[in-house]
Amino acid sequence: HMNEIQELKDRRDQLLKEADQLHTQLVPFEAALENEQSIGPAQERELRDKYNELKTRFDARKHEADLLDRKINRRETLINSQSLMAGYIEAMNTWKD
């Protein structure tokens, strides 16, 4: 179970790293689009397309990382409650002797 959780965490961290890199690429496009008087309509369309493409990939990674995060939390909670139960059962068996 622990290996599985570690794999999920590694995958999540990888996604967040990729999201970070995509965000770094997004920033100059954001800046250029906000300063639209310096660009023509054709260039703006091109920038917006590129921006949207990067943004979509960024959002997808953030979303997937978020889902993995929830899955990790559920698994960890489950493992904790299972080991808690095992502890209780062991304690009760000790009392019986």
Ordered list of secondary-structure elements with their pairings:
Blueprint: H1 2-34, H2 41-96
Helix pairs in contact: 1-2
Tell me what you see in this structure.
This is Chromosome segregation SMC protein. It comes from Pseudomonas syringae pv. pisi str. 1704B. The chain is 92% helix and 0% strand. With 97 residues, the protein is mainly α. It has one domain. It is rod-shaped and about 85 Å long. The two termini are 32 Å apart.
Give the strand content: under 5%
Kindly report the oligomeric state of this protein: single chain
Radius of gyration: 23 Å
Extended strand count? 0
Features:
mainly alpha, about 100 residues, rod-shaped, about 90% helix, 2 helices
Would you summarize the structure shown here?
This protein is mainly α and 97 residues long.
